[in-house]
Each structure stands twice: as C-alpha cells, then as structure tokens.
Design goal:
With 242 residues, this protein is of the alpha+beta class. The protein has eight helices and four strands, in the order βαβββααααααα. The longest helix is centred in the middle third of the chain and has 26 residues. The protein binds glutathione.
C-alpha cells in the first residue's frame, strides 16, 4: 500500500540514458511518469553534492512532497511499485517474490562488478587481481541469466534490473580494451540466445522506451540541483523532519 497519494516525486539521478535505469522503469510501470520531477546529478562534479539530504550522497535519491527522502535504488523501486495496482513488479508472496528479488540482486551486483572492471584500468595503480577475481562472477551471472531467460513470461523487478545491468555492461565494457581476462569487444549476447531473445522482447516495453537511448532534455546545471536540494530541506523543516 502506497504511503503518499498526491503530488510530485523529486528524483535526483544521473540522466545518462545510454543504459536502462530500473528506477525509471519501475516509475513508468506504476503510472507515475508524469509525476516525476527529474533533477540531474553528476556525483563526481563540483556543485552537485546531495549530502544535505542523503548522508551517502548517492544517486538515485527520491524526495517526497513531505520532505521524506528515500535512497537505495531497490528502496525507490519498491516505493514506486507500491503504486502499481495493475501488474506490480515485486510479487507479493511465494516463489515468484523470492525469484524476482534474487534476480534483482544478481543483476544489481553484476552492474556493480561491471563498474569495477570497467574503471579499474583508469585507477592510478590498476590491480590485475581485482579484474581476475570479479570477471568470472560476471560470466557466471550472465550464464545464470541465460538459464533463467527461457522461463520468463511476466515482467518483474529482477528483469528491470537485468535490463539495467546488461545495457550498462554493453555501454561500459563492450567497446573498450580492458584488462585480462576481459576480452576486447565483449558481447554478452554471444552464446546466450535465450537471454538475447528475452532482451529483444522486453526492451520494447514503453517503460524502457521512455528513456533508453533518448537524450535527456532539461536543466542539467548545478544551480538547478542546488535549488531542488534546498527545496527538499525547506519541505523537511515545514514537516518537522529536521
Ligand atoms: N546500492 C546503491 C548504489 C548507488 C550508487 O553507488 N550510485 C553511484 C552512481 S551509479 C553514485 O552515486 N556514486 C557517487 C558516490 O558514491 O559518491 C543503489 O543501488 O542505489
């Protein structure tokens, strides 16, 4: 059951639409797209600090009209999904629920590992063991997704996260020369026909097409980010949250 029924939701996120964002998918699937106020944040750039409203200063971060702030992409997805009365992405009970949440974890950690292996060569002192340790996990995760893909009929949060992870892997890893054992021009589709067929089907969902590969249009300035953060702080003061 949703805790807020009216108003807009301020979503602080990085609007790089070269990959699928599962929080955007969850919002769209829940019918909330028109109620989102998108605020671009680039965590590594000067002037975009989210620390005033999220101690971890990470994206995504979601602020409600009351000033209440939610963070952690899984938290935000589940919050959006609490408004989804037609086909929730978090099944309520039973095997379907645990399968969806396990799939979510598999995909989210694969996404984290893709970030790690993609950025390691840019570190001041790149460590071969970091990539050697983590790359086999990525391969096993992809093979698990392949084994899972043939069984998928409905759409759930784990699949939204799988779209997120695979699209990120493609964008961040496929066209680069990284460190061994990551092969050059790695393509997750090769040898994974069921996962490929599943991707080709679900990528057409309106919730994915809402943003994937479409440029972000809007104010991306640090001034806008700081103004929106200040508004959240003001709402929190009004609501007695600070
Ligand atoms: N587990 C968190 C991870 C969020 C996260 O690490 N976001 C990155 C961008 S993908 C970030 O904000 N990095 C900036 C920082 O760590 O300061 C989630 O799923 O929300």
């Amino acid at each position: 059951m949703a805790t807020a029924t009216a108003g807009t939701f301020t979503l602080f996120y990085t609007p790089v639409h070269d990959f699928v964002h599962k929080v955007l998918v969850a919002a769209h699937e829940a019918g909330l797209w028109g109620r989102l106020d998108f605020v671009p944040i680039y965590p590594r750039r000067e002037g975009y600090g989210l620390g005033a409203i999220n101690p971890l200063a990470k994206v995504p971060t979601l602020a409600l009209d009351t000033g209440k702030v939610l963070y952690g992409s899984q938290t935000i997805c589940e919050f959006f999904d609490s408004f989804n009365t037609t086909s929730p992405l978090f099944p309520a009970v039973g095997d379907a629920r645990w399968d969806a949440i396990t799939r979510l974890c598999l995909a989210d950690i694969t996404f984290d590992l893709a970030i790690k292996v993609g950025y390691e060569p840019q570190e001041a002192h790149p460590r071969a063991d970091v990539v050697e340790w983590n790359w086999p996990k990525v391969i096993r995760a992809l093979d698990t997704m392949e084994a899972d893909a043939g069984r998928l009929t409905t759409f759930d949060i784990g699949q939204a996260a799988t779209l997120h992870a695979l699209s990120y892997l493609h964008w961040h890893v496929s066209d680069k020369e990284l460190m061994a054992p990551v092969p050059p021009r790695f393509d997750w589709r090769v040898g994974r026909p069921k996962l490929t067929a599943w991707w080709d089907r679900v990528v057409e969902r309106p919730s994915v097409q809402s943003h994937f590969k479409k440029p972000y249009v809007g104010d991306t300035s640090a001034e806008n980010a700081q103004r929106k953060i200040a508004e959240v702080v003001k709402r929190q003061k009004r609501s007695g949250l600070r």
